[in-house]
Amino acid sequence: MQASLERKRAVHGMAPSFLGLEDAELESLSAHAKLQSFPRNKIVVHEGDKTDSVYVIHSGRVKVYLNGKNGKEIDLNILGPGEYFGEMVLDSGPRSASVMTIEPAQFFIIPHAVFRDFVTKHPEFAMRLIKMLIFRTRGLLNNVKSLASLDVYGRVARLLLELAVEQDGQLVILGKLTKQEIANRVGASREMISRVFKDLSTGGYIEQEKGKILIAKTLPGHW
Asked: Residue 92: in which H helix or E strand, if any?
């Protein structure tokens, strides 16, 4: 009984935000899911792997990335609690990207057949899933556009604005964000990102504090 109660608390704490599922829907889906823990820097899925599950993040954060032909890592996204990956399980194709934990994490792992059946029986959920796929596709297209049309300053500015949240009337990027992570996201070297941050700090555009970055004024689109 205690284990059942703890699981129920975990489910409700995990993902009211998982595509707007109602409690009953969440209970139904999670009943067939396995809660599993992963340490920091653990690769959860590899690009090219056979697709067999959807992962809903209960706690922790992961990065979604690609490996270039020259061995260079290309980071696509950072995901946190209530978000998910592996939804392309529906076409039974191979994984389109790799996913690695960037801190200790727990996931609800939903088998392919269970997820497909749930989507079929819940058309409103299916529509929300489609809208999220469109949203993520638009984001990837915008990233490609920025790589082609913006200099490094512009790409960094765009990324910071994407990550920023409003807090007490100010735009703030919360959490640890390393220079290498930023470099991987915008297609630049770590040294170049350090130079950009130094210039932005000197110009009064950003203020770096422990655990957060404050956007003090409008960021430059180029330098």
From this structure: none
